[in-house]
Write a structure and sequence with these properties.
Chain lengths: 431, 134
């Protein structure tokens, strides 16, 4: 039952730090780190992976870090008093320290490992929401929300008799600031807003929105699933109360992710899941909870995945998040004007480089997005077609689906050309 | 690749047969494919002898779903409801004559699902209610 206490961010496993010596964003060099990018698809075509908003590929540094745990150290964390368990525990808690540093959390105890952003948001909806949202309260979200930051609040509002208020976007795909301010001024128990839209690539001014919401007394949750992988995110700078993100979109394995929350709020919350590891003492009739963050980590955590997330953080830190973001914007700067020149295309969301990431959602006149994606598939181009877990947004845009290309640090200008060629091919077929 | 979007598929997509409202329809069923957001409303006009005198559909969605439905409706008119039972999953996929990836199979089958829904009130995906056919 001996948990490792406090920050142990200095514990480093094998492998993850290898890249630290070379901080430049050399795309060729970065691509060499990703084994899957060497494969071909569609009968010999080069893989052009442009579905990074859905999930990212993994560098060998992350794969190696996880493989090393399984091959050399594996033992359950927080329990064993033997060497292997202590090593694995130290790697796990070390990963927590690295994730905390990555988002500039004041304390690593405020970082709760969870499966993904969805689970982190649900944790707040259950463990905070049920005790803090009352009849008549107002919960404010936006039309840009992924279902994971929409449905939990919609359902909580229905259960509690609270009101769900949805902030609209303007024609450029930007959150309507005037409406946000007006609605917050009417009162808000919670503001749950996405940092970066997975459907349109819009980056919200979360620091300013948070300041407005906090001034009105609201608790603020930021869905950073599309932000932490692509831009530098600093929870203290934003000033929010909760921030959730997924590991699998940022080079780490699925099953890894984190919720950050303020100590004083987390301390007052009841647990989300009950079971092993989250308790301090269990008697027949009462239980006291473990301290943060373990109070919220019932059962055996996906500790190897969390260690993989730590390695991914090391990788991204070594490259530099400013460089990652700048690289993605370079790709957008190349491909967006060329897309906009194509007759019969509709590009949803921002048409400028300002406050956006490398997500481009579009429609081709007369061609269903799934037909577009199928034609792209035959060219080796992987994109997402569908509603992107954004059905309220799709309804708002007046479409059922879009085709979405989303970039990451390993994508190239040449791949943008393949994308443009695939668009031309789809239009030729359906001409 | 262009196998998938052969000319006759594109032709049925752009010029769907038996498309539009069917006045006097005796059977009507609406269904959707949540993956693509495809929608089909199938309408039949069936006489007292159980013969389908007319068929129409209203749909929107991807080329595969709309073309597959259009092709299917060409086989319906003049047959009895009972005779329509031969129109199963394999028949529809055979009509298309092209490889359909697992992700798109529901696009291809939506029209048949709507036909079965209108004719007999069946609501399962074609193939899933037919043992051994998957």
């Amino acid at each position: 039952m001996s948990a490792v206490k406090g920050d142990v961010g200095g514990v480093v496993g094998r492998g993850p730090r290898e890249l630290a010596a070379d901080p430049s964003l050399d795309v060729g060099r970065i691509r060499a780190d990703f084994p899957v990018l060497r494969r071909t698809v569609a009968g010999g075509k080069r893989l052009v992976y442009l579905d990074n908003a859905a999930t990212s590929q993994k560098p060998h540094q992350v794969l190696d870090a996880m493989d090393t745990v399984y091959r050399e150290h594996n033992a359950n964390i927080h329990r064993g008093v033997y060497e292997m368990s202590e090593v694995t525990t130290a790697l796990f808690e070390g990963a927590r320290g690295r994730v905390a540093a990555f988002i500039n959390a004041p304390h690593s105890r405020e970082v709760i490992f969870c499966r993904n952003a969805t689970e982190g948001i649900n944790l707040v909806a259950y463990a905070w929401g049920r005790d803090n949202v009352k009849r008549g309260d107002r919960l404010i979200v936006s039309i840009l929300e992924h279902h994971s930051n929409f449905v939990p609040w919609q359902q909580l509002a229905a259960e509690a008799g609270a009101e769900l208020v949805v902030i609209d976007i303007d024609e450029g795909g930007r959150l309507r600031r005037d409406q946000f301010e007006a609605e917050v001024a009417k009162g808000a128990r919670l503001v749950a807003i996405t940092h970066t839209s997975n459907g349109l690539g819009t980056v919200n001014p979360v620091k300013e929105l948070t300041a407005i919401a906090k001034a009105a007394g609201a608790t603020v949750l930021i869905d950073a699933a599309q932000a932490v992988p692509h831009t530098a995110v600093d929870v203290q700078d934003i000033g929010c109360d909760f921030l959730a993100f997924s590991g699998h979109k940022m080079l780490a394995p699925p099953g890894s992710g984190a919720l950050w929350g303020r100590t004083e709020i987390l301390e007052r919350m009841r647990p989300f899941l009950y079971g092993g590891d989250m308790i301090s003492r269990v008697a027949v009739d009462t239980t006291t909870w473990n301290e943060l963050p373990w109070k919220f980590e019932a059962g055996t955590s996906a500790y190897v995945d969390a260690i993989g997330l730590g390695a991914a953080v090391d990788y991204l830190t070594a490259v530099g998040m400013e460089r990652v973001h700048a690289h993605e914007l370079e790709l957008v700067a190349y491909v967006l004007p060329r897309l906009l020149e194509i007759p019969g295309i509709v590009v949803y969301g921002p048409h400028t480089l300002e406050a956006r990431v490398g997500v481009i959602s579009f429609g081709l006149e007369g061609i269903h997005p799934h037909d577009v994606a199928t034609i792209f598939d035959r060219e080796g181009v992987c994109v997402r077609a569908g509603h992107h877990c954004n059905q309220p947004l799709m309804t708002r845009l007046g479409c059922v689906a879009t085709t979405r290309a989303s970039f990451y640090l390993y994508n190239t200008i040449e791949e943008c050309d393949v994308l443009l060629g695939a668009v031309a091919k789809a239009q030729r077929i359906f001409a | 690749m262009d196998d998938l979007y052969r000319d006759y598929i594109l032709d049925h997509y752009k010029n769907p047969r038996n498309a539009g409202e069917l006045p006097g329809a005796t059977h009507r069923y609406h269904d959707t494919n949540p993956l693509c957001g495809d929608e089909i409303t199938m309408m039949l006009k069936v006489n007292d002898a159980s013969v389908v005198e007319d068929v129409r559909f209203i749909g929107r969605g991807c080329a595969i779903s709309q073309a597959s439905t259009s092709i299917l409706t060409e086989e319906v008119k003049g047959r009895t409801l009972d005779e329509l039972r031969v129109l199963d999953r394999d028949h529809v996929l055979g009509n298309l004559g092209i490889p359909i990836s697992p992700a798109r199979i529901k696009c291809a089958l939506l029209g048949l699902k709507a036909l079965k829904g209108s004719a007999w009130g069946l609501t399962a995906w074609p193939g899933e209610e037919e043992p051994g056919s998957r």
